[in-house]
Amino acid sequence: MLINQSMVDKAESLMPELISSVAEPKAVVDIVADESAFQGWRVDQAVDQEWKEKVLGKGDSFILDFQDHLVGYIRLRIKPVGSPPDAPLKLKLTIGEMPCEIAEPFDTYNGWLSSSWLQEETIFVDVLPAEIKLPRRYTFRFVKVDVLDTSVKYKVSFEEVNCTAVTSGDVSSIKPLPDQLSEELALMDRIAIKTLQDCMQSVFEDGPKRDRRLWIGDLRLQAQANYLTFNNHDLVKRCLYLFAGMRLPDGAVGACVFEKPHAHVDDTRLYDYSLFFVACLYDYYEASKDMATLQELWPIALEQMEIAAQRLEEDGVVRDDETWWSFIDWHPELNKQAPTQGVLIYCLKQGLELARVLSESDKQQYIESLIERTSAAAVKHLWDEEKGFFVSGSERQISWASQIWLVLAEVLPAEENATLLNRLFEEQPAIGMTTPYMYHHLIEALFTVGSREKALEQMQAYWGEMIKDGADTFWELYNPEDKKLSPYGSNLINSYCHAWSCTPTYFIRKYLL
Amino acid sequence: MLINQSMVDKAESLMPELISSVAEPKAVVDIVADESAFQGWRVDQAVDQEWKEKVLGKGDSFILDFQDHLVGYIRLRIKPVGSPPDAPLKLKLTIGEMPCEIAEPFDTYNGWLSSSWLQEETIFVDVLPAEIKLPRRYTFRFVKVDVLDTSVKYKVSFEEVNCTAVTSGDVSSIKPLPDQLSEELALMDRIAIKTLQDCMQSVFEDGPKRDRRLWIGDLRLQAQANYLTFNNHDLVKRCLYLFAGMRLPDGAVGACVFEKPHAHVDDTRLYDYSLFFVACLYDYYEASKDMATLQELWPIALEQMEIAAQRLEEDGVVRDDETWWSFIDWHPELNKQAPTQGVLIYCLKQGLELARVLSESDKQQYIESLIERTSAAAVKHLWDEEKGFFVSGSERQISWASQIWLVLAEVLPAEENATLLNRLFEEQPAIGMTTPYMYHHLIEALFTVGSREKALEQMQAYWGEMIKDGADTFWELYNPEDKKLSPYGSNLINSYCHAWSCTPTYFIRKYLL
């Protein structure tokens, strides 16, 4: 890996202090199978709401509902009841963002992501009474406590179960929305902000339950939402320096970065994600006007464009292949070529703006020529005049992603972009969108072409439906037509508070006020 | 409970410093079903003896054999192999004294003691590389490491697994045995000492795996073995003060004491165990000649005899009942009346000696009259002249325990005691012995009546067989005829290093040198 230690040091010097607050459980609940409920599980208030001081023996359990999404540290205080405890207490905690995580046994999990993400602990308590501060951080709304064993001589009762929630997002810095905004949008804004807040830790994490790390694709959207809400420039700057300070061997920005045991970049390389370093820097400069940072990081942004250009075929179209070379969306059949061409042009255009700000005229010319070459290639080789859509790959696939990204790249004249998006809704190509991340880009495209109503309608149909399905924070994955959808093989492992889903607050505050 | 704080404080001031030493695993083994092996499990050396640096992924495991019985703290050093770890490591450790604990799944356990004693941990490691010091103390020879999950992007390897073993028994203080002693007895002595050593912690524990606490029945035998080996008087004194400082409401000494979170006596009351406070004090004074402690604790010893006398019926025999009122042995059908009468007389005789040492003539008279009354009653009401055995309870049960304890009480003339023990072996009454604790008293009785050869033969037939069955330390329970015997419903939960089994070293060093 390519390490620039002074940049890494600068990132570390920007380590935020986390804000903590203590949350208490609000109710005891039962989670009941119900086909009409989201993912088949309904949350009912338990008949018996007592849990503190209740005497529990082997086989007893209760489910606490904190009625809020939390990221933090769980503490339990437990006392023995009966004779002096003559054996350890064996306890199981099952910790979940969603009812499915509490109700469906984790040993049924058979997805391809590591089962180690499923939040559970089996704890032996040798000495009672005990105050237990679990050392790991959890992300949850529900905690199921199973008393696996005490002994014939004693039982236990719980005096306290609480959570010290942590975030680097200071809600007091957020401007209140004007009163005239609909309640529905105000609620959507609040949930979006909570989503962003819970992902704001010592970096912008993608999901605080999973993967708990900094991905540049998520960072870009989080930072955009952040500039209109928490407005924490230092956290974005820290993340930019982490990506800039640790790159892949050829200089490409990595797709994600780990913080522990020391900051290090992952070996995942995604063409679109490397390019987003340009977009992130552009957005950061627009929001902060921090010229020093722009000057220091510009060479790395430029290098991303140069590296990206190396993948262009002679015809000016980015080279396709069968590997996981570009992210775009989780859709398993999506061809990445055309949408990636859109990302490239989109980022080149932001890079050009930065070159102008820096008065780098040589670089302006270089980028301008790249934009011209790639845009012309997109129209010439990817635009299918007959079908009225951009096509992607050797199979000439027509996908939502291709249209959306090439609209965002503004390859066609403005009025044709609007027409293209209308056609997309009319013809509904089969290769759709699977993530809020892709939905974000659809909405952004709609606002870009001036389709404010359509954008709002789509926000309501997507994030609004998540709210109806019980979202406390917005989810990594959501398909109103297939509510158990997971690209990982099980909805148990999905992240239910995910960075890339936080952008309704960005749309509301940027376009709807 | 009846607390004498100054006695408790004295006990706490005698808290020993533990001696620690680091033990490394010696081999990688397979545990293989084999009906001819002890409890059906054979330990084979694994073909592949490499474990350090071996790359392990989901589903991989290995079993480390430390080739010694250990009590202490496990430390692991683990490093990732492959891409940067993008998910926690999920690890399971199964920790056992015996092969059965490693080979038989703990979820099959169905005994009546708490399953929380079974030594296992499921650990999530969020950051790699990691050095993990497990906070709980384990008692084991074998550790099975199961890698439950890593991720598709990385595996792990173990750089170190070791154990910091702890004890308050300083082996350097033990006198070597003379060369002429047989190898078999030298080995038995060594294993007995190791058993005692591993039980010597901040108190004399009954078993370092289970129950990990101070029982007075075990203490008495441990102290006797200790005086001839480690000769740690302070640890016995600490234990005596714990029992003396915290008693049951009527003044009776409790059966056992817990140390944490602060010293406290259990609510278990056993008639024989309360009386053993007298015997423990007698043995301690004999070994230490510590007059100050004898003087301070004498009133409590006297009180135990007074309380015991309250249970005598008018005929001078201790009252029987259906509850768990006296321990004697784990045999489920054993009637406790006659053997308990033996314990009473045995302890009264030691109490009388202490009264003489203290020149308490009034008390001497009181105890002498009690001895006369209970001894006469034993002969008159419990001795069945026709059968030639002591009988116990309303069903006039003939058991080994009754004969042994009434021989130890020396109720009959000396030559008749020897005859009675011979008759016991000839007629083999059905109500036999189930624990090394009861076997100890048989051997002690044999030595007492001068049957040195028979005593040695029995030691070889019992502890010698345990050695042949692979004992690294002597076991809580052993029946050469039923090797899976457990009074708890499963041999998984038996203690395989147990205080009351450590006495071969006492017999060898007291009677056989």
From TrEMBL, chains A, B:
Source organism: Paenibacillus catalpae
The name this protein goes by in its record: Alpha-L-rhamnosidase
GO process terms (BP): carbohydrate metabolic process
Coiled-coil annotated spans: none
Pfam families: Bac_rhamnosid6H, Glyco_hydro_78_N
Every Alpha-L-rhamnosidase six-hairpin glycosidase domain range: 189-511
Domain Glycosyl hydrolase family 78 alpha-rhamnosidase N-terminal: 25-165
SUPFAM superfamilies, per database record: Six-hairpin glycosidases
